[in-house]
Amino acid sequence: MTERMITSRRRFLAAALMSFLVVAPPAELLAQGIDPLPSWNEGPAKQSIRAFIEGVVQEGSPNFIPVDERIAVFDNDGTLWSEQPVYFQFAFALDRLQDLAKANPALAGQEPYKSALSGDPKALAALGEKGLLQIIGLTHAGLTVAEFNAEVGDWLKTARHPRFDRPYTDLVFQPMLELLATLRASGFKTYIVSGGGVEFMSAFTEAVYGIPPEQVVGSSGKTEFVLDGDTPVLRKLPEVEFIDDGPGKPVGINRFIGRRPVFAAGNSDGDQQMLQWTTMNNGARFGLIVHHTDAVREWAYDRDSKVGRLDKALDEASRRGWLVVDMKNDWKVVYPFEKKQ
């Protein structure tokens, strides 16, 4: 099967996956008595999302936005899928590190790899950004981009989340899948703008979210072009090129999308500047924060969390008019598999 055939098949599967959610503009579905956001509880959060979309698409409305300006950006970790107890990409890196340590036992005695391999949550939390970047650099570099994509794909097929004993891609948020589909049915182009690695995310976003790789903005390491015989390849290097987090997100949006969004969704202080860039302007703008408040179905955390800390952005939300989605109260279900139970 050729690369073009594989890409076409992936896009067909992604479209088929999302088609059951929204097959017509929301106004038409509502007129037929069909709720395009069935996993959202009725209340102010759901009403505000509906009102924004209806105003954007209605010609003659003061909030009408032309189709080519309907850009929506979403953080990934903690916004579209879970991120506890560690970011899922870091879980992938830890598994890769274990494999590398088997091949090179000396790594187990060197920091930060020793602490990472210990499995001690406190030791992992104490690694800091420098330690995390070292581990990401070691475990992600040396492969070609195609090899790395295959490694991520294989890992996603076999790895299981420690709490739910399910594939990591099962831990996507059903209400956010519905929101993505509703926006697209309303003429929006949806992008991921996340601190995660762009190549890591691009390995699954089309199949899981219906968002193709060219609409994924993320952190990136340096790559080099080389000829392997007569085969051109891009090889990943152990150097950071761009961090798509915090103030880096508006920079990434400008560089890779080229339009200022009118809708942005995040869940942490790392999304604060993206929300500011999107909403602090005249005209219809919408900012959304997913607040993790459900310790039973997911996790409850915000200001003191080592992963996905939500502090300054939470304080700013009311002043800016950002919608804070209370996961416990605003969502009927969190994950798609809950609907089958």
UniProtKB/TrEMBL annotation:
Pfam families xrefs: HAD
Gene3D superfamilies the UniProt entry points to: HAD superfamily/HAD-like
Keywords of this entry: Signal
Tagged with keyword Transit peptide: no
Secretion signal, residue range per the UniProt entry: 1-31
PANTHER family recorded: PHOSPHOSERINE PHOSPHATASE (PTHR43344)
Descriptive protein name: Haloacid dehalogenase-like hydrolase
Organism for this UniProt entry: Ancylobacter crimeensis
Lineage: Bacteria, Pseudomonadati, Pseudomonadota, Alphaproteobacteria, Hyphomicrobiales
